[in-house]
Amino acid sequence: MASDKTLNAKNLAALGADRLANILLELVSGDAAAKRRLRLELASLTEGSVGVAAEVRKRLATIAKSRSFVDWHKYRAFVQDIAAQRGAIVDHVEPSRPAEAFDLLWRLLDMAPSLYERCDDSNGAIGSVMEDALEDLGRLAPRCGLKVPVLTDRVYAAICANGYGQFDGLIGLMAPVLGKEGLALLKTKFEALGESPPKPPKDSERRVIGWGRGGPLYEDDLEVKGHARLVRSALTEIADALGDVDAYAARYSAEEQANPAIAAGIAHRLLGAGRAGEALAALDRAEPLRVKGGHWPDWDRVRIEVFDGLGRMDEAQALRWNLFEHVLHADYLKQYLKRLPDFEDEEAEQRALGIAAAYPDFDRGLQFLATWPAPAAAASMVLARYDEMSGDHYWYLTDTAEHLDRDHPLAATLILRSMIGFALDMGRSKRYPHAARHLQTCAYLARRIDDWAGHPDHDRYVADLRAQHGRKSGFWTTE
């Protein structure tokens, strides 16, 4: 039973409204963010969504006017302020005034360039708020009674001003509301934009902004390329929204269609349109580059889907197995096994575990076995290839040791020893507390190990550690 002094809603309510109000005023003194939150709550209480919308609009205008740089120690509060405005829009305005909420969210997204320019958003906190706001727009749009021509103009302007990516994916989000009429109108606008590239300046007015292998890099050249990229990206997204596979593919040159990633995108859409044969041809055009190497997961995935779509099950299965065998891709192995007749899947799984245990990259092989999970195979791999283990890879070794410690204490011990040894040999003092805990676990596991398989027992291991690293007090005192 909770104490009467426990901080919960019931106990605090017993203080009474007047007392709580005075405490709140005292607590928010000097805290601008908290005061703004209280004003929003009061506006919601006294004026409803109209009052909250007015407060948010006023706050957004204030933020937009500011030009001061936000230092790192003020950054968190800055982000919280922006997130609070989005929260107020969604929680207080949207339920009864969706159209106004839509407008306020759009306003927030319009402000993105000035927000990014005022701070270092390298951790992406502001970007996350913008992503949420954009998702809110897509969710709200069907409820707002938006007129197609007006929305088309607004989408066009947003995409043209999308320098920071805050409107990425907007066309697809608005497609259900734009419909074929709006998308066709938007297509006309971007086609016209494509026919009007930036006018080149006079030679004497060209600005050099860098140097490359081919000589100087001019600002106007980048503008022309950026303009072309904008138009093509928009037209490609419009074609996608219209379900026009041919128009989508036509936005890429023959050279670009030979890129496995682009070919996979085209093939995926052709397959969705019931054109599996053409989808395979699109993938085949990119195979010469694909076989040269590189990581092309979408190409492989779509090729399997196309084989399935064409009824070429044996080829799909062969590709699944090949992908597993070369990169130990667990999902493809699961799909492969699922399609095998009864009893054949068990034999294939054992063959797969053997491949993983002998995989040239020790860490990749052990990670696969530990997460499949195949603890017995993982333990055998540790015992057989202990010398290949790097104790630096604590991010998966710690979990692997935990998974093995119940039934395979020697293998778990060897994993822990590898991390202990690495920390001490390399003098990684920040890891000493973790290494000390690992040594304590080794002592516990030693009680269940009868056969050390040629490895020193725990007492001998500790003695050797003291002989080699006895002066590293940061480890021994932690222990």
Description:
It is a single chain. The protein has 479 residues and is mostly helical. Among the domains are: 252-307; 312-358, no CATH class; 363-479, no CATH class. It has 25 helices and two strands. The protein has helices at 9-13, 17-28, 32-65, 72-93, 98-110, 112-117, 125-140, 148-160, 170-194, 219-242, 245-250, 254-257, 260-272, 276-290, 297-309, 313-327, 330-338, 344-357, 362-371, 375-384, 394-404, 409-425, 432-446, 458-469, 473-476; strands at residues 208-212, 215-218. It has a two-stranded antiparallel ribbon with strand order 1-2. The model has no long low-confidence stretch (mean pLDDT 91).
**Largest sheet: number of strands, sense, barrel closure:** 2 strands, antiparallel
**Poorly predicted runs:** none
Summarize model confidence as the mean pLDDT: 91
Shape: globular
Cα(first) to Cα(last) distance is 38 Å
Query: Strand sequence of the main sheet, in spatial order?
Result: 1-2
- Helical fraction equals over 70%
Number of strands: 2
Radius of gyration of CA atoms, rounded to a whole number: 31 Å
The helix/strand order is: HHHHHHHHHEEHHHHHHHHHHHHHHHH
Structural class: mainly alpha
Distinct helical segment count:
25
Beta fraction: under 5%
